[in-house]
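For the sake of clarity, the format in which proteins appear in this thesis is described at this point. The record quoted next illustrates the convention:

___
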Amino acid sequence: MTVDAYLLRVASTSECRDEAQRRSRPATAERKGPLTTHAVSRASARRAPHAVSKMRPDAEETLRFVLASLDEMKAEDTLTLDLRGKSSIADYMVVTTGRSNRHVGSVADRVVEDLHKVGFSARIEGMPHCDWVLIDAGDVIVHVFRPEVRAFYNLEKMWAGREAVQQRAG
């Protein structure tokens, strides 16, 4: 028997006709009857919203925690820039200096650890080299620099502008 003869014979059976009819239905055809248990479970899982925190931490409260952590870790030349009305990325930017790579890394670790202890989330960048570590705590962005790197990039001048009020932490 040739392949063509076999396919003709198989196509003539009722099972194949039912299968062909099922495949020829448009994809948008309505299904009659209730959904299967498997389809119901997939549909409900697809429609379930992701859990979202209802509490958004206040920018001033986050700033207080960050400044307290920086002071505790003996960060130097801490400067707070008010970005409200200037940028949508954050409300405050904190720029500070560590004495060495190790000090910069320790300061950044402590800030993130202290924020996590009180329930704030923070993301961190630049830890492998510890020349410039950026901590994104939502409405507060913290830059921890080594002195030479801070002088080179001079973020304060770029973000502060003429009219900005700068606060130095003591």
